Amino acid sequence: MQKIVVNETGGADQLHLVDFELGAPGAGEAQIKHTAIGLNFIDVYFRTGLYPAETPFTPGMEAAGIVEQVGEGVTNVKPGDRVVYCGAMGSYSTHRNIPADKLVPLPDGVSDDVAAASLLKGLTAHYLLFLTYQLKKGDAMFVQAAAGGVGSILCQWGKHLGGYVIGAVGSEEKMALAEANNCDVVINSSKDGFVEKVREATNGKGVRVVYDSLGKDTFERGLDCLQPHGLMVSYGNATGPVSIPDLGILARKGSLHVVRPMLGAYTSTYEELTNNAKALFDVIQNGVVKVNIGQKFALKDIAKAHNALENRETTGSTIILP
């Protein structure tokens, strides 16, 4: 058995592969043998110390695998079941014990790789489209990082719901990927001013909702893309955290609304988790959402995976193979 350990927060060189032994699962737990591990930007936030965690720790919030043992009182899964989970740190490992109420059974039509690549990102897209803001047919929406993991699912699902989808990407190479994600308009933000392009694409009106995972570098300009009373959804900070020292900016730009949601608030019960996951797996199995796994790395190469993610060299989702 092997796992990644961070002894001190910092750069990708702080990700160390170690051997370990794992005891039997405790009451309410299941022991999982991982088959595929998801890579997410939140892993970087914990590794760098932007999000605090007590060291040493094993990063990673998402993985698929097979149940090998269950502890006392576990009834929702059994040995041999294929499962996936997210939101429980420690997935950068070959095996782990985990509370069984974190586990979602996998339908036959969803592979382990797709599940590990999509659960956290897909549940994020679900709450963004249905819970943080309920997207309506005809709503214009603007998505930053439209070729990324969450962005890919968000654009496809939003288009299926009847949204007018404008996506921004960071390079010419990613434009075709965003177009394949069913964006109506794609903007290369490394070359064009995205505010002007969003206004042009909406005949000057702006969009009803902005979905921004980039943070500091795009937040304030994102406000300028909104219609009066529009909603800025800041759900990530890949370029740094956002601050609003002057709330009056929201009034001056059209009585705007801002929200900073997190997945855990929408999956706090097992019923919420499984219901939202079912909605995601349904659209994957129906072909509404196609999960693009752009990269695969071995667990021993996790530092390379982090560097690629931070340097915006990845497309779609990335998985780690234990």
TrEMBL record:
Query: Which terms are listed as keywords in the entry?
Result: NADP, Oxidoreductase
The protein's name is NADPH:quinone reductase-like Zn-dependent oxidoreductase
Task: Enumerate the GO terms in the molecular function aspect.
Answer: mRNA 3'-UTR AU-rich region binding; NADPH binding; quinone reductase (NADPH) activity
Which InterPro entries does the UniProt entry name for this protein? ADH-like_C, ADH-like_N, ER, GroES-like_sf, NAD(P)-bd_dom_sf, QOR-like
In terms of SMART domains, this protein maps to: PKS_ER
Q: Per the database record, which ranges form the Enoyl reductase (ER) domain?
A: 10-320
Task: Give the UniProt entry's GO cellular component terms.
Answer: cytosol
Pfam families in the cross-refs:
ADH_N, ADH_zinc_N
Q: Does the keyword Oxidoreductase apply?
A: yes
Q: Which N-terminal stretch is annotated as signal sequence?
A: none
Q: What is the lineage of its organism?
A: Bacteria, Pseudomonadati, Pseudomonadota, Alphaproteobacteria, Hyphomicrobiales
> Does the keyword field hold Repeat?
no
Origin species, per record, is Maritalea mobilis
